[in-house]
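Dock NDP; give full complex structure.
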Amino acid sequence: MVKVIVAGFKGRMGNTTSHMIIDHDDFELTCVFDPRATEKNLSEESEFKDLNVPVYNKLEDINTSDIDVWVDFTAPSSVYANVKFAIEHGISPVVGTTGMSDDQVVELQKISKEKKLGGLIAPNFGISAVLLMQFAQQAAKYFPDVEIIEMHHDNKLDAPSGTAINTAKLIAEVRAPKKQGNPEEKETLAGARGANYEGMHIHSVRLPGYVAHEQVLFGSKGEALTIRQDSFDRVSFMSGVAVAVEKIQGYDELLVGLEHIL
Ligand SMILES: NC(=O)C1=CN([C@@H]2O[C@H](COP(=O)(O)OP(=O)(O)OC[C@H]3O[C@@H](n4cnc5c(N)ncnc54)[C@H](OP(=O)(O)O)[C@@H]3O)[C@@H](O)[C@H]2O)C=CC1
Ligand SMILES: O=C(O)C1=N[C@H](C(=O)O)C[C@H](O)C1
């Protein structure tokens, strides 16, 4: 039985993940954490009324003695401190929260390595997104002119999305940096060309009704290729989270990308 804490359990992903952990035969929801929580036990929530699961709203109060895996779906401002706390207490992190800097990830990888502790940071747990990133990397070898459009719900805090940044990073591994578009182009409205990652432009759309979607557009002489994925429901992320929770203790370093454990 894998003993799991869900950080950010009051949020959209945290709630879906808590249900997945509860329903999974091989996982136990040991406790949950969210600074927004006022209850002491999950049983105080009608949707969890038959459970006995301690609720914490302060990091330092968490009883870490019997937790194997820390699932984090919180906020860009808190994820680094949460994951550092988990690693320092020997708890394997499975992190979906986006918005960490490269330096923060490197620092967490260093601490994990010292402790020989397995962990995973996955910018996207959806298999459609993992495949999109791999297909996009493959296509970029032949189509170096590329733009990324990511579309999300309008409560998202970070832009561009973690998935879009990771897509650009994977493409950059096979594509020489290149300025795209007319060398003389001028934005008459600031931001019109989006963010710029090694010459690739990334555009972020935020609209109510959307969940999580990404298109990678490639253009070449007389032809174009568009790769698109859609998460219509947060349940799309759950099989990826479950695989990570199941397998992560078998590793001894902090990995980035779900593809490394599939
Ligand atoms: N990798 C993946 O596949 C996916 C990743 N995500 C990412 O997951 C994160 C959460 O997304 P989502 O569920 O939509 O966001 P929500 O805002 O719905 O949920 C986040 C929750 O975490 C809480 N929180 C804030 N700070 C802390 C903290 N220090 N410790 C514990 N909990 C905290 C928030 O409380 P409060 O509101 O009071 O701040 C909120 O209840 C985002 O970064 C998002 O990009 C989302 C979907 C898939
Ligand atoms: O905030 C979200 O919702 C999502 N965030 C992740 C990201 O930033 O890429 C993953 C997915 O796109 C949903």
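Observed: The pocket of LZUJQKHR (ligand 2) is lined by residues 98, 123-124, 152, 156, 161-163, 212 (CB under 6 Å).
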